[in-house]
């Protein structure tokens, strides 16, 4: 994962090269997502590094994660008021710092129920959420 662009290019398009590109693109996506960058910016940054990741890998990552299709809209409200289908734009952690829910996780009524059982005070925290995706 510490290969520079030239080393990655020399790995070729077969199993090792393609696998390295997939992992590198996924790590880059994860890092940018955790930092709270809008979906459109994440996609733009990945495309700017197409020579490293390859268009095929970026397109597959965009298709599987929904980046580029999702609006950059965002709402901030107490977790208790989140609606099923909304996606987290930030991590949810306990007061002790333990991770409860990662960035990008889709809200469900079951999730809110479980949080109320484990760390009810977290439901009052204001969180950044992406609106629910339209059903296709």
Describe, in plain words, how this protein is organized in 3D:
There is one protein chain. With 136 residues, the protein is an alpha+beta fold. It has two domains: 5-65, no CATH class; 75-130, Molybdopterin biosynthesis moea protein, domain 2 (Alpha-Beta Complex). The protein is 46% helix and 12% strand. The protein is built from six helices and five strands, in the order H-H-H-H-H-E-E-E-E-H-E. A three-stranded antiparallel sheet has the order 1-5-2, with no helix packed on it. A hairpin with a 5-residue loop joins strand 3 (92-93) and strand 4. Helix 2 (15-34) runs antiparallel to helix 3. The chain is elongated, with a radius of gyration of 17 Å.
The biggest sheet, with number of strands, parallel, antiparallel or mixed sense and barrel status, is: 3 strands, antiparallel
| N-to-C series of helices and strands | HHHHHEEEEHE
Which oligomeric state applies?
A: single chain
Any low-confidence stretches, pLDDT <50, length ≥5?
A: none
Number of helices: 6
Strand segment tally: 5
Domain count: 2
Output the structural class.
Answer: alpha+beta
Q: Quote the beta fraction.
A: 5-15%
The global form is: elongated
**What's the Cα radius of gyration?**
17 Å
Euclidean distance between termini CA atoms: 36 Å
Helix percentage: 40-55%
Task: Kindly report the average pLDDT value.
Answer: 83
- The order of strands across the largest sheet is 1-5-2
């Amino acid at each position: 994962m510490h290969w520079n662009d030239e080393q990655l290019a020399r790995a070729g398009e077969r199993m090792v090269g393609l696998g390295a590109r997939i992992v590198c693109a996924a790590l880059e996506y994860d890092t940018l997502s955790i930092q709270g960058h809008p979906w459109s910016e994440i996609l733009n940054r990945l495309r700017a590094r197409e020579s490293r990741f390859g268009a095929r890998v970026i397109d597959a990552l965009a298709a599987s994660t929904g980046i580029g299709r999702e609006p950059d809209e965002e709402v901030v409200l107490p977790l208790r008021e989140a609606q099923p289908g909304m996606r987290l734009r930030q991590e949810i952690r306990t007061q002790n710092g333990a991770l409860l829910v990662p960035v990008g996780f889709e809200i469900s009524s079951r999730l809110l129920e479980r949080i109320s059982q484990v760390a009810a005070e977290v439901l009052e925290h204001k969180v950044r959420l992406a609106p629910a995706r339209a059903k296709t």
